[in-house]
């Protein structure tokens, strides 16, 4: 469901989302990057609209310039290409809490109409145990302390829910003024970019409204994929399709990750056969961002 | 002063049933070999502490050795869920798992307080989050100078911290470099410290950004080349991404997991780690 065939339009709905997420970073100076889709967007921005963008990862790398998409937050590529590598307490205290980062870029498991985020637990209904998600990671303080927050996730009623089962990370709370009341220095979420379009908080209500559709997507499609009664802006724009250069850059970043991942598996042999997992060598989720929440 | 000794002896001496045990490493330098020795020795009823309880803790939890987990993000980085962690939380298999849950900023500051021998740390954190409803180690404190209300997080002081590093010298001084995460704080916060290293060198050469832990803050050093696998040690190995991906189907299934642990950890008698 996450991709229209490339043959019909020349690009997939995921690529539309990723390119538009990268464009949202055109004016940023510094970005605190979550792994997965946010990392794809931030690295594509460096390759296209914002070559000077400073990427900061919570593993303690400042100014990472990877030539392929990192496969985890602590990928050696992030440290090897960084301007500086610092400790984790330092990245959170001096740089993030110190107010030195423009944009936080986050994914989410669940988001509500005020762009609050749940990555902790989901209620599965009566008699069933709560479903366990990875937890908070860096998100609560990223959303609080960065100048503003961008979000990127695929659009479905599973992700865009009427009521969060747990608030891991505050977006706009229950309306305007909530962030200020809590003394949060940053502006909070300013855009949620999905594979269907873009949602932005209404300045008067702080509620996410549909402001842009990707080419070929209808308002009805977005409504059907949203778990609350979605408000639609008076004028809904259409995003620009990816340019050939943007598509080429995105595909090059993704392709660069694949041979590198395969090559790195050679380390298994060095450490002894008995430590290899049974199904080693399976390509699995190499190029596919799964439940990326950090 | 650190004794240089076998991993088997060091773990047997330093890690005990019921301990609070931190095995740190932020994706890089994760002490897997030491965790496998804990599994082989069946050291149990542990409270495990770690910012990112990834596959290393999935293995300890699935092996039934863990009573409680103190953490801020539990997943298989770049792949998806930790299935043994989820099974323990959701279904109590192989035993129920108590959670003390934080954000990364909170956990990092809990270690800082622990290393500083202060009872708590302050940060502008947890605002608007439901996390404080699920833990008794987050509270608030009012700044005596400005009146601002801040989050307070209780210090973490593990009984034992285990980390992996690149090098030690013969006196037991240790140096690690690359992504050094929260290892220094976790080591200095603990009562007892075990460091596994890639190799012993005659003299430690200072590295840009390297961290030196002097021998007098460490109890034991064990030489375990490749002891961070499937994680990595910068300058010695690269991350085995294929292992993390292959772990997913193994960990999904209780029997496949148990068989894997039996074959690759429990019956190996530590042969791979010394």
UniProtKB/TrEMBL annotation, chain A:
Keyword Transferase: yes
SMART domains: CoA_trans (SM00882)
Region (Disordered): 255-294
Database matches in InterPro entries: CoA_trans_fam_I (IPR004165), NagB/RpiA_transferase-like (IPR037171)
Chain intervals with Low complexity compositional bias: 255-288
Record organism: Streptomyces antimycoticus
GO MF term set: CoA-transferase activity
Protein family: Belongs to the 3-oxoacid CoA-transferase subunit B family.
Keywords, comma-separated and alphabetical: Transferase
Protein name per UniProt: 3-oxoadipate--succinyl-CoA transferase subunit B
Superkingdom as given in the UniProt entry: Bacteria
Automatic annotation (TrEMBL), chain B:
Entry-linked SMART domains: CoA_trans
UniProt KW Ribosomal protein keyword: no
Stored Pfam families: CoA_trans
Keyword Transferase set for record: yes
An MF annotation (GO) of this entry: CoA-transferase activity
InterPro entries: CoA_trans_fam_I, NagB/RpiA_transferase-like
Coiled-coil annotated spans: none
Top-level division of the source organism's lineage: Bacteria
Keywords, ordered alphabetically: Transferase
Classification via PANTHER family: ACETATE COA-TRANSFERASE YDIF, CHOLESTEROL RING-CLEAVING HYDROLASE IPDB SUBUNIT
Family: Belongs to the 3-oxoacid CoA-transferase subunit B family.
Protein name: 3-oxoadipate--succinyl-CoA transferase subunit A
Organism for this UniProt entry: Streptomyces antimycoticus
Protein's gene: gctA
């Amino acid at each position: 469901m996450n991709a229209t065939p490339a043959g019909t339009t020349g690009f997939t709905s995921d690529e539309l989302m990723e390119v538009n997420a990268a464009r949202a970073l055109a004016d940023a100076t510094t970005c605190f990057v979550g792994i997965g889709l946010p990392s794809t967007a931030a690295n594509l921005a460096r390759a296209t609209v914002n070559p000077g963008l400073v990427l900061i990862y919570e593993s303690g790398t400042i100014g990472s310039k990877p030539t392929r998409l990192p496969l985890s937050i602590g990928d050696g590529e992030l440290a090897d290409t960084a301007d500086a590598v610092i400790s984790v307490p330092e990245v959170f205290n001096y740089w993030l809490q110190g107010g030195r980062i423009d944009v936080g870029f986050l994914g989410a498991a669940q988001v509500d109409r005020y762009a609050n985020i749940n990555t902790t637990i989901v209620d599965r209904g009566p008699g069933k145990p709560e479903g366990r998600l990875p937890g908070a990671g860096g998100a609560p303080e990223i959303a609080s302390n960065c100048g503003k927050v961008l979000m990127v996730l695929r659009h479905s009623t599973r992700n865009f829910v009427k009521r969060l089962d747990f608030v891991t990370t505050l977006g706009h709370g229950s309306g305007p003024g909530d962030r200020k009341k809590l003394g949060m220095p940053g502006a909070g979420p300013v855009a949620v970019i999905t594979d269907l379009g873009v949602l932005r908080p209404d300045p008067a209500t702080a509620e996410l409204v549909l402001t842009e559709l990707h080419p070929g997507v209808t308002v009805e499609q977005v409504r059907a994929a949203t778990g609350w009664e979605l408000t639609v802006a008076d004028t809904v724009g259409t995003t620009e399709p990816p340019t050939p250069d943007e598509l080429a850059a995105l595909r090059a970043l993704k392709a660069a990750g694949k041979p590198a991942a395969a090559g790195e598996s050679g380390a298994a042999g060095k450490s002894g056969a008995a430590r290899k997992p049974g199904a080693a060598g399976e390509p699995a989720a190499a190029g596919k961002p799964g439940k990326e929440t950090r | 002063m650190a004794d240089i000794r076998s991993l088997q002896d060091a773990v047997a001496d330093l890690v005990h049933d019921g301990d609070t045990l931190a095995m740190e490493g932020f994706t890089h330098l994760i002490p897997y070999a030491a965790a496998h020795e804990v599994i082989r020795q069946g050291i149990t009823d542990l409270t495990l502490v770690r910012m990112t309880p990834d596959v290393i803790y999935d293995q300890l939890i699935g092996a039934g050795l863990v009573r409680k987990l103190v953490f801020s993000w539990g997943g298989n980085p770049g792949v998806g869920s930790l299935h043994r962690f989820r099974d323990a939380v959701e279904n109590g298999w192989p035993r129920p798992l108590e959670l003390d849950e934080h954000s990364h900023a909170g956990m990092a500051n809990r270690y800082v307080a622990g290393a500083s021998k202060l009872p708590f740390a302050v940060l502008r954190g947890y605002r608007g989050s439901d996390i404080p409803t699920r833990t008794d180690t987050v509270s608030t404190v009012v700044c005596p100078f400005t009146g601002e209300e801040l989050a307070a997080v209780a210090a973490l002081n593990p009984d034992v911290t285990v980390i992996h590093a690149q090098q030690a010298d013969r006196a037991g001084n240790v140096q690690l470099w690359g992504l050094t995460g929260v290892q220094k704080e976790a080591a200095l916060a603990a009562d007892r410290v075990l460091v596994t290293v890639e190799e012993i060198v005659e003299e430690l050469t200072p590295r840009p950004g390297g961290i030196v832990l002097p021998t007098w803050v460490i109890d034991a050093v064990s030489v375990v080349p490749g002891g961070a696998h499937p994680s990595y040690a910068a300058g010695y190995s690269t991350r085995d991404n294929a292992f993390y991906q292959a772990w997913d189907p193994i960990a999904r299934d209780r029997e496949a997991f148990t068989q894997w642990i039996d074959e690759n950890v429990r019956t190996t008698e530590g042969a791979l780690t010394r």
